[in-house]
Amino acid sequence: MNKALSELGWTRTLKFAFYTLAHAAFQLLLFPPLRTLALRLLGARVGANVVIHPVRFFNLYRRGFRGLRIGDNCFIGDDCLIDLAEAVTLEDHVTLAERVTLLTHTNVGYRDHPLQAHLPAMAAPIVLRRGAFVGSCATLLPGVEVGECAIVAAGAVVTMNVPPATMVGGVSARIIRRL
After folding, report:
1. Residue 28 and residue 136: Cα distance in Å, rounded?
2. 113-133: pLDDT as tens digits
3. Residues 79, 101, 93: CA angle, nearest 5 degrees
4. Domain ranges across the chain
5. Which CATH number fits domain 2-178: 1.10.3720.10, 2.160.10.10, 3.30.559.30, 3.30.70.600?
6. Dihedrals φ, ψ of 138, to 5°?
7. Beta-carbon neighbour count of residue 114 at 10 Å?
8. Are the beta carbons of 179 and 165 closer than 8 angstroms?
9. Residues tagged active-site
10. pLDDT per residue over 73-102, tens digit each?
């Protein structure tokens, strides 16, 4: 605990405590309209006709829910994992199927971790453009932008931007075809 407190500081630690409690309350909300209302009250921008199934947010102490923007007519499936260390933007008509992971940062551990020199911490926002679809169990890494009406196949690991109207899949994801 002392090491974490020394690296985070008191302000971030208190933010972590607040957002942990807020997220616990959020998890108790059983119906999608209540989840969207709660996210709005906590500072997220959430559009109309949004369906949010049970989802897990983390790294809230960095940006809070203000780092989350969800457009109109979006769907977020069960068990999605959304990292809010940096901003996450879902434009209108974006669908995240079940168990999608959106990672906006990488970090191997404390500052003195022996791998920090080889894999330094980094963070970058994720953007999903209008009409994008992300299949079940796909993972998007920091800084990825998924183009308009693009499809990310189930189980894909996306390390680079996805062009508009393109289907990608695989580990690491590659273009399967143009739509």
Report:
1. 23
2. 888 888 888 899 999 999 999
3. 85
4. 2-178
5. 2.160.10.10
6. -75, 155
7. 8
8. yes
9. 113
10. 999 999 999 999 999 999 999 999 999 999
